[in-house]
Specification:
Elements lengths: L1 H7 L5 E5 L2 E4 L3 E7 L3 H12 L8 E7 L6 H12 L11 E6 L5 H11 L4 E5 L3 E3 L3 H12 L3 E10 L25 E3 L9 E5 H6 L18 H11 L4 E13 L6 H26 L7 H28 L4 H26 L10 E5 L5 H12 L4 E5 L4 H6 L10 E5 L8 H16 L3 E6 L13 H13 L2 E4 L4 H4 L3 H4 L2 E3 L15 H8 L8 E5 L5 H19 L10 E5 L9 H8 L4 E4 L4 H11 L2 E3 L11 H9 L3 E5 L13 E4 L4 H11 L6 H5 L5 H23 L1
Parallel strand pairs: 3-4, 3-6, 4-5, 8-11, 12-13, 12-14, 14-15, 15-16, 16-17, 18-19, 18-21, 19-20, 21-22, 22-23
Antiparallel strand pairs: 1-2, 6-10, 7-11, 8-10, 9-11
């Protein structure tokens, strides 16, 4: 009794009251989920009521998962019968019953977790008997080890005589779990028994709790959610232990002591292996093996193995007169392979339900786009099935993820469609796939971050703008990075779909910048220069580059009249080719006539960005007075490197940049741009202010992805 109190330690929080006396919050919250096992769950409750741990140390939460045999009423009567008025709070056990109509063990456990008031959640099955010192041993183990999760020992309580053919390697399928007689720490790949384990609620919530995709359901006894949970706990740095003193007995029904039970369990183990492999591949972002062609090759190999088992190995075991135990093992292996094959074949007709949200097809441009890559990685980390396609919508993916009855609506997400470089035939194929996606119930989401094609005057590259506009008209929602959508989208039908989702940052996404002196020497720029302006040419048109050159010349001549040596005047550096893809002949000609203007026509973002950002002090964004022009991520990239920004006063920038590290100018005004460049020289000496103005990539994109998933789910519920 006293060891349980010591294990819990001194707690200052209280919950509830009985007879006007406050009660301390419990240490353990025992969550007991049940479905149509009225008599068995009452036996489990009786064993919990006889625990040696004091009543104020734990609470019991029973979750009825839609039972139809009167379980809920029987539990309530049992609870009322055990309540006595006039008792002290520490002599009265705390128990409540909740209802979860959604079928599935994970849903029931999540309902219990939401109501839990303890520090540690203990999960038990509804057909177990807990030994009297079960919770006390568990509390002592947590005190001794400092573990984040502990699994207990599971013995078997036979409901009928054990059959002669039941061997030791088969008892694990009945729930037996005893890896050691001594307490031990579990390593990678180890797991608890699903009928007896506990975990700190804070750690459980930190890793995202259970996965409904791998949980046990009424017609799908998969039951891999505990194995998946243990893997994620271990990968996140939490400690897992096994405690043999936390002992329960698992009731073995007579119906389970039949060969048909073991054959059926082997079949579902085969299907579970495929789903677990799918879950791991989804977490790692390695989903190419689940495309149609690799799946066909896998099915051929699986079919050959199954044929060998059925036509060769099984008849040989029978003809050789082997024991019934060996014959059962061969039958179970055949059933496991059949389940493996069935689950793989289902992937051809329809992909499985997503783990924590709808399946997403992210359609992006074929060029380097760090933002789209970070978005895909963020979806993978949230256990979302995300496939990246380059400037196309694969019909095989649409077929596998089409909406069937009762399923979540999956998403086709177009990111920066204006950057797609499509031929007329590819353009028509994309529009046909879009029409098909709408017919099959997909949600269509468009992210419009802007691009250089928005600033092209005349009819050049009009096909890119038309494609963007068409996708917006066909979409369910348009995501953008502006707080002024009324200025950016004049069409009311599009504006009604616009949703402003703040852009995440890029800090620590790229390699840190090189030392300034070293970077200047590598680029051949004067080391004594007071300020270097950098312009990323792929984000602009050649006309915008010429516009910046003229503004810089105005500022340079004004400063050169005051400064003494030429090398002490500002320098302008262009990196890469303009967005049109052609060599900037006019801009190169102007640069050749000016000693302070430099060009570097090659740009590899991951490789070259630390060099150019190390040399730069200010990032210049030249744009004309076109409301849709500009890309916010260029400015955020500069802020992640603690560089000042000169940007136009356009809807994509207004209100989105910190005033301490940015200067907005009147777009299209050469004089205003020259004045902004001059003012920016006084901002680059404040790197600490600039650095605090942007989020780091890890937390920023994690938050962005969670908000995006909420938009997906809200859209799906509205469409349903």
């Amino acid at each position: 009794m006293e060891s349980g109190r010591k294990a819990r330690g001194m707690r200052e929080s209280y919950t509830g009251s009985i007879g006007g006396l406050a009660r301390m919050a419990p240490h353990f919250s025992v969550i007991l989920c049940t479905y149509n096992r009225r008599s068995l769950v009452l036996t489990t409750l009786a064993s919990l009521r006889r625990q040696t741990l004091p009543y104020d140390e734990f609470e019991v939460i029973v979750v009825d998962n839609g039972s139809t045999d009167g379980t809920s009423g029987a539990v309530r009567r049992y609870i009322r019968a055990g309540m006595h008025t006039g008792r002290r709070p520490e002599d009265t056990w705390r128990v409540q019953i909740l209802s979860e109509p959604r079928n599935g063990l994970v849903h029931a456990r999540e309902t219990g977790l939401r109501a839990a008031a303890g520090e540690i959640a203990v999960f038990l099955d509804d057909d177990v008997f807990a030994h009297p010192n079960f919770l006390e041993a568990l509390a002592y183990a947590y005190e001794q080890t400092g573990a984040d999760a502990i699994g207990g020992r599971v013995e078997l309580r036979w409901g009928a005589s054990c059959p002669y053919w039941l061997s030791s390697e088969l008892v694990d399928m009945l729930g037996y779990f005893a890896p050691s007689d001594e307490r031990m720490r579990l390593g990678e790949g180890a797991s608890f028994s699903g009928s007896n384990f506990s975990v700190k609620i804070a750690a459980l919530r930190a890793i995202g709790s259970f996965s409904p995709f791998l949980g046990k359901r009424l017609r799908a006894p998969i039951g891999l959610e505990v194995q998946d949970l243990c893997q994620r706990l271990y990968q996140s740095g939490y400690t897992l232990w096994y405690e043999p003193g936390a002992l329960i007995e698992h009731y073995v029904h007579a119906a389970r002591l039949k060969r048909a039970f073991f054959t059926g369990r082997a079949y579902w183990r085969g299907r579970s292996d495929v789903l677990a492999h799918y879950s791991n591949a989804l977490w790692r972002g390695e989903m190419r093996q689940y495309l149609s062609r690799p799946l066909l090759l896998t099915l051929c190999s699986e079919s050959y193995t199954l044929a060998c088992l059925a036509c060769i190995q099984r008849p040989l075991v029978y003809l050789a007169g082997r024991s019934s135990r060996e014959h059962l093992l061969v039958v179970m292996e055949q059933a496991r392979k059949w389940g493996h094959l069935r689950q793989q074949a289902q992937f051809l007709g329809h992909a499985p339900l997503a783990l924590s949200g709808p399946a997403v097809l992210l359609v992006r441009s074929a060029g380097e786009d760090e933002t789209a890559g970070l978005l895909a990685q963020g979806l993978h980390r949230q256990y979302v099935s995300c496939r990246v396609a380059y400037e196309e919508v694969p019909l095989s993916w649409l077929w596998q993820h089409r909406v069937v009855s009762g399923q979540t609506r999956n998403v086709v997400h177009f990111y920066r469609a204006g950057a797609f470089n499509l031929s007329p035939r590819e353009h028509q194929r994309l529009l046909f796939a879009l029409w098909l996606a709408r017919r099959w119930g997909f949600l269509v989401v468009v992210t419009d971050p802007g691009g250089w094609w928005q600033g092209v005057r005349g009819l050049h590259f009009i096909a890119r703008r038309l494609l963007e506009r068409t996708l917006m008209y066909q979409s369910d929602v348009v995501l953008t990075y502006t707080r002024q959508p009324q200025q950016l989208y004049r069409d009311k039908s599009i504006r009604r779909r616009v949703y402003c989702l703040p852009h995440a940052g890029f800090r620590e996404c790229y390699t840190p910048p090189l030392p300034r002196v070293y970077a200047l020497e590598q680029l051949g720029l004067p080391v004594e220069t007071p300020c270097v302006y950098l312009c990323l040419a792929p984000m602009h048109t050649e006309q915008e580059l010429l516009y910046l050159i003229k503004a810089f010349q105005d500022m340079w001549w004004e400063q050169s009249c005051i400064s003494q040596p030429p090398q002490s005047t500002p320098q302008l550096l262009f990196v890469g080719c303009p967005g049109e893809g052609n060599s900037p002949l006019q801009a190169l000609e102007c640069a050749a006539r000016h000693p302070a203007i430099h060009f570097s026509l090659t740009l590899s973002p991951k490789k070259d960005m630390p060099l150019y950002m190390g040399a730069a002090d200010v990032i210049a964004l030249p744009h004309f007075a076109v409301p849709a022009a500009g890309q916010l991520e260029t400015a955020l990239l500069a802020l992640s490197y603690a560089r000042a920004v000169v940007a136009p006063d356009l809807p994509r920038f207004n209100g989105m940049l910190p005033p301490q590290s940015s200067i907005l100018y009147k777009p299209g005004s050469q004089k205003a741009l020259a004045q902004a460049l001059l003012k920016a020289q006084f901002l680059h000496d404040l790197p600490a202010v600039v650095e605090t103005a942007t989020q780091d990539a890890a937390s920023g994109w994690s938050h962005y992805t969670r908000r995006l998933l909420k938009i997906y789910r809200d859209l799906g519920s509205k469409r349903s």
